[in-house]
Amino acid sequence: MISVAMIGHGAIGGWVARQFDDDDTVKISHVLCRPGRESAAEEVIRGAGAITHTDQLDEKVDYVVECAGHAALINHGPEILLRGIDLGIVSTGAFADELVSSQLMAAASQAGSHIDLLSGAIGALDALSAAKQGGLATVQYIGRKPPVGWIGSVAEEVIDLDNVENPTVHFAGNARDAARKYPKNANVAASVALAGIGLDKTEVTLIADPKITKNQHEVRAEGRFGDFTFMIEGNTLPNNPKTSALTAMAVVKAIRNRASTIRL
Questions:
Q1: How many angstroms separate the Cα of 238 from the Cα of each of 32, 40, 86, 217, 241?
Q2: What is the pTM of this model?
């Protein structure tokens, strides 16, 4: 049995933890939360001990998964990696900040630990990263959400989300700028970029589309391998309409891979 600690106890963390209630290969042993939130964290992540600092992690913890946002990753990620514990990351958009990226990679290199960039709400990253080995010419990511899906983001400063009648582009640029401007919305763009040709070369278009009801993620790539187009319409978690169900499922897969003899 492997011991896993979780950073965060929100919609993703709660859903993930429940998948291991009857699993004899994985134990969610700890949940890292903000001071004062210990009781709430233990209520959501049943059977786990709430901690507020990485120093409280048990030496037997085999893996940590982050599903709490950029700030939590920045605050705790380097220290976890320095303890020699591998870290799975949902908030890949944090890598758009070169200082954060260098701190995480330096900590992992120093301690011999590893960073897993979890696929989150998108698929086809395995094909994209394989194609990268032969050489990629272009990679495009197009993200479409209903206008309500962009509330609380910088899109509100660009277009009137309450009165969008047709699909409207509110961002066109590279993945680094997308991740910086949309820290809660552009983890997918960052994941595509990190799997492919990088944050500065990956083209990103973000669209508010009143004609759709589900978030749509599309990846287009060309290279020596040929070309492909991948698109997914993602459902959200039942208790959080802003959270992709596939993101939570990707975390479960990453944890199960750690406990499996055969990994895919």
A1: 24, 20, 30, 19, 7
A2: 0.92
